[in-house]
Structure formats: structure tokens, C-alpha cells
């Protein structure tokens, strides 16, 4: 299946409301596992429905291999049944009066596939999705996870070149979600199907996707690999939406931010305005030490929260700064902490964990400060050193 191109697509449901999708462009490459990620109401499902042909575009074009399926200005619209695209919704929409086997077979019958071939295809799907023994049950006699598998089997039986999944795991418990995630990855690898997956769950997106498209209020914020999105967020929204616990944000003019930038070998570029600029610090990229000679910023441990194999540690900067500043930061570690609540420690940040954002939320580069860079090189672990360039 060739690439799918979204060319400036927009959708406005009602004239007196802002568009649900506003001039979104992206290229979904053949064999990609694309996750469309964003908060509730940002336009994710609308994008999926437009690709499937279930929703008309207000403007723009959707093309496959350069051939328009939808082109508002040229008046082109290919109906859903002619797009060869499989769609699985959050609600599985199985036919309640048909058994599992009949549900899977239904679309093949419509395609007029010969009976023998149909039987074989149904058996293959049942084996692949591990639902053997359930063939003669009705949907009401299945668990949520089993219904989910049947819905996937029914869609995959049609051998779609593109599979659109709208929060298909949202009704499953944690264990089932995990096994379905593994199954989706396996299906993607085995079939090479192009998958477009809508979710508001960042962890799901980070673990499944080859590419993530982050949306907010109908607009595309960033598109890239999970690493791109996490390590080089294009703007403040993306930086704050991705990451758990969320990234710390400090005014760049605060003494903590200034100190961390400086000792990490960076400086604010001379052309950048510091007015309302913010420094983002990933919690897992902070470093704590009791060694005052390490030139870290003094903070107090205000809370330690174990989360099973990892610890969330809250740090308070105000107790130790003479200025009238009050900042709390979150630090995470997978090593059992050596400190106690109330203890004074020194804070540093790995260069790759620092992200600068302008007043309007756009990513900005930090400059390397030649005077302090040597110090940072010396003190920064190898992992961080290799990332130093990424921040620029
Ligand atoms: N049929 C409709 N008529 C009018 N407005 C709609 C319609 N469908 C969706 N919307 C609005 O369009 C916006 C985007 O909706 P959409 O369902 O695409 O968001 P979403 O990101 O998938 O949300 P969620 O994660 O909650 O499912 C929302 O503000 C929603 O209220």
C-alpha cells in the first residue's frame, strides 16, 4: 500500500465553532505505525474518519500514492467501501446476531470470496488472534478483550492495506492492554500493514508507534519518531504533554534555571528574549548529590514517593534561595534514594534533559558556553555527552 498524504485537511462541523481539524498535513508512509496522539477533543477521531471517508473534508486533500481519494476543490470523493481501508472503533460494533466465525466471515462473503477460501481465511484469523474455541459464541458471550480480538480478526480478514484503529484498547484492563499491544506490534510486523492508531495515551503511542503525530486544538504540533518527540519537543505543548511525571517548567530568569544552564555548559543565546521564556527539565534527567563541590544548585527534599521500582522525589528550591522565589521540581530515579525528607542536596541537570521555550512556546536552542562547557564535559556522564549536540 503506498503512502497516504494529508494535504492541508480541515474539518469544520459548525460555522460558529473553530475547526475540529485545522489545515493538517502529514505523510503516512507505507508500513508505518502512525499514532495520532493528543488530548480529548483535539480532532484525532475526525482525522481518522476523514481518511476512512466517513467524514467529508471542509478543505484540503487526501491522496494515496498521489491519487486523490478526497479533494474538496476538485470535487473528488471516493466512498469508504472503495478505499480498501479497515477501521476498528473503540466500540467494536460486532454483529450481535452472528457468531464469532460468521462475524469474521461476513465481509469476505460480501466480497464474494469462494466458500473454501473463506473458510480457510476465517480459520487463519482465528488462529492468529488466538480465539480458538470461541467460533460458535455470540458477541454477548465474550469478554471485552475477546470482542476486541474478533473485531480485529474481522477487519484483518479483509486484508486491508491500511488499518485505522480508534482507541481500540481503551476498554481493556491493564494486563489485556499489554498483551493486545504486543499483538498489534506482531501483526504490524507480520503483515506490514500501514496502521493509523488514535490514542490519548502517551505510553501507548511511545511503545507502539514508528511515528507520532501530536495534535492540540485541531492543529498538528509535531510529527516524528517517539525519540524525536520526547528528546526534541517542537514546542512547550509537546514537551508538557509527553512525559510522566510531566517535565518541570521554570522561568528561565529564575536563579535555579540560570544556575543549571550555566553549570551544564550552556547559555541563553544573545538574540533570545528571556521575557516569559521557560526552561523545561525532564524529571529523569536531573541529578542529585550531597557533594557541595559539584556546584549543583542547593535544594531540599520535600517528599519521596515510591511507585514500585521507581521513586518520585519532590524538591523545593525556595527554602534555600535568598531571593523571593518558590519552586518545586520533580526528580525521578530507578535507584533507591539515599536521601531523607528534609535533607539538603545539590541539583544538576543532564544537558539532554534541558529544553528552552520562548514566550510563545516555541523551542529555542541553548548556546554552548565555551567557558563552562569544559566543566560540563568533565561532569556529564557519557550518555548525556552524546546528547549534547541534540539540544542545539
Ligand atoms: N458530529 C459532530 N458535530 C459537531 N462537532 C463535532 C462532531 N464530532 C466531533 N465534534 C467536535 O470536534 C472536535 C474534535 O472531535 P474528535 O472526536 O475528533 O476529537 P478526539 O481528539 O478524537 O477526542 P476524544 O479523544 O475525546 O475522542 C471536538 O470539539 C468535538 O466536540
UniProtKB/TrEMBL annotation:
Signal peptide: none
Top EC group: hydrolase
Source organism superkingdom: Bacteria
SMART domains from the UniProt entry: AAA
Segments forming domain ABC transporter: 4-242
Keyword Cytoplasm in annotation: no
EC number: 3.6.3.19
Stored PROSITE patterns: ABC_TRANSPORTER_1 (PS00211), ABC_TRANSPORTER_2 (PS50893)
GO molecular function, one term: ATP hydrolysis activity
Gene Ontology terms: cellular component: ATP-binding cassette (ABC) transporter complex, substrate-binding subunit-containing
Keyword entries, A-Z: ATP-binding, Cell membrane, Hydrolase, Membrane, Nucleotide-binding, Translocase, Transport
Protein's UniProt keywords contain Zinc: no
Protein name per the record: Maltose/maltodextrin import ATP-binding protein MalK
Amino acid at each position: 500500500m503506498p503512502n497516504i498524504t494529508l494535504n492541508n485537511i480541515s474539518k469544520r462541523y459548525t460555522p460558529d465553532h473553530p475547526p475540529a481539524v485545522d489545515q493538517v498535513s502529514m505523510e503516512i508512509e507505507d508500513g508505518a505505525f502512525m499514532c495520532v496522539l493528543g488530548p480529548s477533543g483535539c480532532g484525532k477521531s475526525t482525522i481518522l474518519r476523514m481518511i476512512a471517508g466517513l467524514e467529508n473534508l471542509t478543505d484540503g486533500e487526501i491522496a494515496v500514492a498521489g491519487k486523490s481519494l478526497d479533494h474538496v476543490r476538485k470535487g473528488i470523493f471516493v466512498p469508504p467501501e472503495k478505499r480498501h481501508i479497515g477501521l476498528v472503533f473503540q466500540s467494536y460494533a460486532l454483529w450481535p446476531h452472528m457468531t464469532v466465525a460468521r462475524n469474521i466471515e461476513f465481509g469476505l462473503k460480501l466480497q464474494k470470496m469462494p466458500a473454501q477460501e473463506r473458510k480457510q481465511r476465517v480459520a487463519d484469523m482465528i488462529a492468529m488472534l488466538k480465539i480458538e474455541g470461541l467460533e460458535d459464541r455470540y458477541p454477548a458471550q465474550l469478554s471485552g478483550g475477546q470482542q476486541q480480538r474478533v473485531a480485529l480478526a474481522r477487519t484483518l480478514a479483509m486484508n486491508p492495506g491500511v488499518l485505522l484503529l480508534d482507541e481500540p484498547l481503551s476498554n481493556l484492563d491493564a494486563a489485556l492492554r499489554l498483551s493486545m499491544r504486543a499483538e498489534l506490534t506482531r501483526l504490524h510486523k507480520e503483515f506490514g500493514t500501514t496502521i493509523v492508531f488514535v490514542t490519548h495515551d502517551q505510553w501507548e503511542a511511545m511503545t507502539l508507534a514508528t511515528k507520532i503525530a501530536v495534535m492540540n486544538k485541531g492543529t498538528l504540533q509535531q510529527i516524528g519518531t517517539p525519540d524525536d518527540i520526547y528528546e526534541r519537543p517542537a514546542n512547550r505543548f509537546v514537551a508538557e504533554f509527553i512525559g510522566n511525571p510531566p517535565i518541570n517548567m521554570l522561568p528561565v530568569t529564575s536563579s535555579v534555571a540560570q544556575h543549571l544552564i550555566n553549570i551544564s555548559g550552556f547559555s541563553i543565546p544573545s538574540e533570545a528574549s528571556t521575557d516569559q521564556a521557560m526552561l523545561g527539565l525532564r524529571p529523569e534527567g536531573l541529578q542529585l548529590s550531597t557533594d557541595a563541590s559539584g556546584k549543583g544548585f542547593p535544594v531540599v527534599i520535600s517528599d519521596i514517593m515510591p511507585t514500585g521500582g521507581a521513586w518520585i522525589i519532590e524538591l523545593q528550591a525556595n527554602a534555600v534561595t535568598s531571593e523571593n522565589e518558590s519552586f518545586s521540581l520533580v526528580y525521578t530515579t530507578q535507584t533507591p534514594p539515599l536521601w531523607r525528607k528534609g535533607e539538603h542536596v545539590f541539583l544538576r541537570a543532564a544537558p539532554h534533559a534541558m529544553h528552552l521555550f520562548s514566550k510563545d512556546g516555541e523551542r529555542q536552542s541553548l548556546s554552548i558556553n565555551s567557558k563552562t562547557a569544559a566543566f560540563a564535559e568533565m561532569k556529564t556522564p557519557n550518555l548525556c555527552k552524546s546528547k549534547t549536540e541534540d539540544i542545539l
